[in-house]
Amino acid sequence: MTGRGIRHSEDDEDLGVEEVLALVKEDRDIAAVPSPQDGTGAHDSPAPGSSALRHQTAPRAADGRHKATPWPEARETAARAARAGVRRAPVSVPLDAALGLVLAAPLSALTDLPSFDTSAMDGWAVAGPGPWAVRDEGVLAGHAEHEPLADGEAVRIATGARIPLDTTAVLRSEHGRTDGKGRLHASRELPHGQDIRPRGQECRSGDHLLAPGTLVTPAVLGLAAAAGYDTLTAVPRPRADVLVLGDELLTEGRPHDGLIRDALGPMLPPWLRALGAEVTAVRRLGDDAEALYRAITGSDADLVVTTGGTAAGPVDHVHPTLRRMGAELLVNGVEVRPGHPMLLARTKEDQHLVGLPGNPLAAVSGLLTLAEPVLRTLAARPAQEPYALPVTDAVHGHPYDTRLIPVVLRGDRAVPLHYNGPAMLRGVAAADALAVVPPGGARPGQEVEILDLPWAAAGIGVCFT
């Protein structure tokens, strides 16, 4: 998508210092929030149930102009807003649907593990000192308890099989041999209890295994199944609706006649799933203020994500629609490049809206700045532990704003990628992470904060479930 509602390129790599300063001055001269007299439906009554909400104008600088929110503060505001919402009730989820959720209740063992004495190896269960007479019938996993062994007896046994009563050890297959009379001998010393997993070795029934707040990984699913669970009590996935705005967008084929392909419609749903959301709807609305109003007020998702229309142009309907609804504007513009004209609003007591810029990389910036903290908090997921890496090359910065640029991680360093303008996806498509570049830029070797992309941190097979 091109920069609908964005008045200049935010690709500072291609700009000199004087040009950047001129663009910054232009930004300061733009009032990002139209007056209440502008836009469709500005004087309409608030939507039903929204009387407790209010549309707040964003903070103003000393000169009365719109003041964007600093990038770290915007992320904290998004997380805090989600915490302040209506508490979401835990749900009971089958094991095959629980991957990536967070436990809402302790996981306690429903059985001893193992639930009976088992063989840890293929070999022979033996009783007393050898040599041993070997029984004809062996013991397999999943079979009922075998007859007790007498001293001097052995029986073939498979890994995981129930140990016969009075067994003193398991002799591994590679450590035993039979003589011409069919008697079993050990080729090395065999301590008492060798290769027997006693009942309750891992846990006893009722033991505390995992605390609430634990992320359900494949290993957690395995432990839960072994401990006797068919379902888990977990925090439900936050539901997200995606509303794609713009009359200029094509859903197939090549760009032509001033029309361009929609990059965000295919990109946002899987990205939101990677952030832990259940995407419940993807709707293409064009530049239709009434359709946008109906879509937002009719949504029962926890988070509504819109694309484009967040500035003050003639077809930028997001702000007027939020005013019409009586929404509470929490973040109105962020001091970050790309993605400056993003926003966060509370549209209902239990619903938020993240307005993303229309440019693709700017939309990615908005996802990681505002949508990620909201979804993470709603899903009760832990935040990424902050870490920093030195950049291999100098990175141009914005004079006043934070800058997010795609990087690949090579050992203990971050390599900045080209094609990092707000309308470009070529850089982030090859990236492992985004580097958080402070105002003024970063010199070679300077450490900067790193935001991992979810699939780089968790693996595609995990995070897209």
SSE layout:
Layout: H1 17-28, E1 69-70, H2 71-83, E2 91-94, E3 102-103, E4 107-108, E5 118-119, E6 123-126, E7 132-134, E8 153-157, E9 169-172, E10 176-178, E11 183-186, E12 196-197, E13 208-210, H3 218-226, E14 231-235, E15 239-244, E16 249-250, E17 260-261, H4 264-274, E18 278-284, H5 289-297, E19 303-307, H6 318-325, E20 328-332, E21 334-337, E22 343-348, E23 351-356, H7 360-378, E24 388-390, E25 402-410, E26 413-416, H8 426-429, E27 433-437, E28 447-452, H9 454-458, H10 460-463
Parallel strand pairs: 1-21, 7-8, 15-18, 15-19, 16-17, 19-23, 21-25
Antiparallel strand pairs: 2-14, 3-14, 4-13, 5-12, 6-8, 6-9, 7-11, 10-11, 20-22, 22-23, 24-28, 25-26, 25-27, 27-28
Structure, described:
The strands form seven sheets. Strands 1, 21, 24, 25, 26, 27 and 28 form a seven-stranded mixed beta sheet that branches. A six-stranded mixed beta sheet has the order 9-6-8-7-11-10, with no helix packed on it. It has a six-stranded mixed beta sheet with strand order 18-15-19-23-22-20, with helices on both faces. It has ten helices and 28 strands. It has helices at 17-28, 71-83, 218-226, 264-274, 289-297, 318-325, 360-378, 426-429, 454-458, 460-463, and strands at 69-70, 91-94, 102-103, 107-108, 118-119, 123-126, 132-134, 153-157, 169-172, 176-178, 183-186, 196-197, 208-210, 231-235, 239-244, 249-250, 260-261, 278-284, 303-307, 328-332, 334-337, 343-348, 351-356, 388-390, 402-410, 413-416, 433-437, 447-452. The two termini are 27 Å apart. It has four domains: 34-87 and 237-378, 3-Layer(aba) Sandwich (Molybdenum Cofactor Biosythetic Enzyme, Chain A); 91-111 and 205-235, Molybdopterin biosynthesis moea protein, domain 2, CATH 3.90.105.10; 118-197, Molybdopterin biosynthesis moea protein, domain 3 (Molybdopterin biosynthesis moeA protein, domain 3), CATH 2.170.190; 388-463, MoeA, C-terminal, domain IV (Beta-clip, Beta Barrel). The chain is elongated. It has 465 residues and is an alpha/beta fold. Helix content is 20%, strand content 25%.
